[in-house]
Amino acid sequence: MSGLPWADLARNAALSAVVLLVLMAATFAVAMAKGGLHRVVDSAWGLGFAALAVAGWIASTGRGDDAHRLLVAVLTAVWGLRLAAHIAWRGRGHGEDPRYARMLDKAPGNRHVYALRKVYLLQGVLILLVSAPVQIALYAGAPPLPLTVAAIALWALGMFFEAVGDRQLARFRADPANRGRLMDRGLWSWTRHPNYFGDFAVWWGLYLLACSGWTAALVALPAPLVMSALLIFGSGKALLERRMADRPGWAAYAARTSGFFPRPPRRPRAPADG
């Protein structure tokens, strides 16, 4: 296929790989300094995208539309830094994430070397792949104005659901009266996963910013599809709901609340007569 600055994109991908290696190595060092607390890698997910956006923005200076490049870098960095800060704040004072504890308890050989391969490096590869729309958008030029407006609107919708949903859940959990109860208020009454839906909307918005032409749109398309699959069928919604299935009240909550895409909650069915 033609129509993309392939040499520039290849150089940027190599730069991105180096940035991610440095970030993941630093994150692993922090984890080991905390006694092998590998949950810190979750904060590196958002930081990785922010770092790639900033590095790509600097490397692409003089190429393409400056305002568009800055828009792409800012939107990506704002999303990534907010997510990283939220995850770090949420995990303060806690021990190892149960997901990592279960995985590392079964690790062959040294558990920390296993974590470096199976968690840190794998996450770095995923960030590199999923960030394709950002890398392409920095070099391929701006899409038509209606697509740019739609991209910003979709990104803003996603940030609203993600940030507000996270804040509502944090306030709910901070109230001792809610211990053991399911969060079913605010945005959580419209979707069981406002934060995951928010990520979904943000990344489809960033994808639209890469759609300067058919070639760019097709090359960038696998990235939001992979992110959507992770959020809905992988480590997001599906994994969390398997853990929540036995919670008291879950079945009723799931029956009235959308599993992913927001909609008003269903009213409980009236009991049948007779």
From TrEMBL:
GO annotation, cellular component aspect: membrane
Parts of the chain that traverse the membrane: 12-33, 40-58, 70-89, 119-139, 145-164, 196-215
Highest taxon of source: Bacteria
UniProtKB keywords: Membrane, Transmembrane, Transmembrane helix
Record InterPro entries: UstE-like
Gene3D superfamilies on file: 1.20.120.1630
Protein name: Membrane protein
Protein's organism: Streptomyces xiamenensis
Lineage: Bacteria, Bacillati, Actinomycetota, Actinomycetes, Kitasatosporales
